[in-house]
Model the fold of this input.
Amino acid sequence: MEAVAVAAAVGVLLLAGAGGAAGDEAREAAAVRALVARLLGPGPAADFSVSVERALAAKPGLDTYSLGGGGAARVRVRGSTGVAAAAGLHRYLRDFCGCHVAWSGSQLRLPRPLPAVPGELTEATPNRYRYYQNVCTQSYSFVWWDWARWEREIDWMALNGINLALAWSGQEAIWQRVYLALGLTQAEINEFFTGPAFLAWGRMGNLHTWDGPLPPSWHIKQLYLQHRVLDQMRSFGMTPVLPAFAGHVPEAVTRVFPQVNVTKMGSWGHFNCSYSCSFLLAPEDPIFPIIGSLFLRELIKEFGTDHIYGADTFNEMQPPSSEPSYLAAATTAVYEAMTAVDTEAVWLLQGWLFQHQPQFWGPAQIRAVLGAVPRGRLLVLDLFAESQPVYTRTASFQGQPFIWCMLHNFGGNHGLFGALEAVNGGPEAARLFPNSTMVGTGMAPEGISQNEVVYSLMAELGWRKDPVPDLAAWVTSFAARRYGVSHPDAGAAWRLLLRSVYNCSGEACRGHNRSPLVRRPSLQMNTSIWYNRSDVFEAWRLLLTSAPSLATSPAFRYDLLDLTRQAVQELVSLYYEEARSAYLSKELASLLRAGGVLAYELLPALDEVLASDSRFLLGSWLEQARAAAVSEAEADFYEQNSRYQLTLWGPEGNILDYANKQLAGLVANYYTPRWRLFLEALADSVAQGIPFQQHQFDKNVFQLEQAFVLSKQRYPSQPRGDTVDLAKKIFLKYYPRWVAGSW
Done:
């Protein structure tokens, strides 16, 4: 009986959004043809024939593509949806042409004539959904994007087979209409919204007010963007996930409705109640369904709907009560506010709350939430399944459909990291789990544009029924496609990276860079790693050895810089350890030598090599923010938002360095001054024979950190110097020391 109920729940979602009219097929085919022209140019695009045919689907709701032709004929790409056709195109480019599509730049040299497809190659996805995004991605990566950048991302999504993704831009403009209609003043609304770089946490009820308000122009531009994003996503046959009301309200609601029943939640992220402690409506309060339905009705009126909505009531916040009856009522209130407006509503819930606070979310509490929504109407994202899956301890989410997600990255940090073995085997294990309700795979990073090998593998797994059989061979082919040519040293370098930085295992694996390089210095910094540093240094040597053959490849230059950055990060840890040991042994000369190399040689060299690539420039990062503005004052405000997120993440360093990046300019003017102040303080302590005072140092260094955030200094947005030459210069200076073990 249980298996029957599970099958019924999964069936609801298998059929959701499946099918569509002939007009939809024509529109989706046209969208893919336009993508081909953008990707390859109009000339090469003429060599491809694209069609969308719903009847091609192996089973209802399961995307399918078919490839044929090539050689003397046009390449035929057919798909059951636009997304399926785009994924088929990507498969042809990847496996037959040796091409590579990536955030950092694509390698699209087509062989002539185009290779023929033997017979007809047909592939069907094993699951209904391939999901993409995390609520936090909207702030860590997307916040300053214009339409041109969004278009490139949606193309990337289509090529990688993504058919379910968040579309949350512009919602504050809708909320503003609702709040005004309820009787709040414009001033009260302005006070409630956070600044743009922190909207993700305002949307989940964690924050309010911080680094706001939102300028009127923000709402106008975001509405425009959202319309274009939705139109483009729908043109491929993707299902956009719109936001819904989760229960959080501005404090000003208590002025308009004095009798309203609200709970003031606890603080979040080391913020005080000036910026956190949100107000949560009681589920039984009559205003709850009114606000929820007002918002959703206005949202649908503006944007239309595809019937899947996201809402997170208790993200990293402990509910007011652990009583199952309360948790069920709170869940029911959110769901019923959706169905009051859209009877076909499906709720997409981030399962992070169950993973983040396991001490609160026991079996009874989890069962209360999952059981409060009809089976098949709650779609759970098992957000961190590659490391800490929740489906295994909740009987497959009590029969509710779920998506196996790879979270991978926290804060949009730089740093080579992955758990490729766990990622490779995870989806199959979830599918084979007893009474599994898995309906898809997903990529849910907090930030993108890093560790592209991890996302290439995860996207491929969305179409595979079993794991990649040989990951070493897979990464070797990945490198050849990425650079446009096979090179033995480059392949060997990638195999070393696979067994080291990309081979993290166990629940402790988190893609959050905690290297001393990007943390506020102290004597208690953790330098432990899960891999052998020798593999990183040897991969660095091998990649440099292949430079004469591969240096014309933009992707190779990016990877060489990224690996050089990683090697310097390792060196910083080693010199820090030596400086700390020298301090503890009161050896001033050794402390000055190690500290001098770290702060006055190594970090400036890192900043210089980062400056050789536009993708690693603070100036480019900040220019994105400034370009979103309509006035100089607004540009300054957006830039400050961006600087806060990269560094202090709050007025007092509340979530200090969580979103750390290694960017030219940030290394020179933020990380380097901190390290110099720290090492000078240690040297003074040894010279004067007094203990180092961490508390006093923290107060002093905060002044440097805050000065960086408030600074108006502009940074170059154009690269300077040659990446290969600068990487080689660092290598020749430090690699021999590593080999000799002489620091």
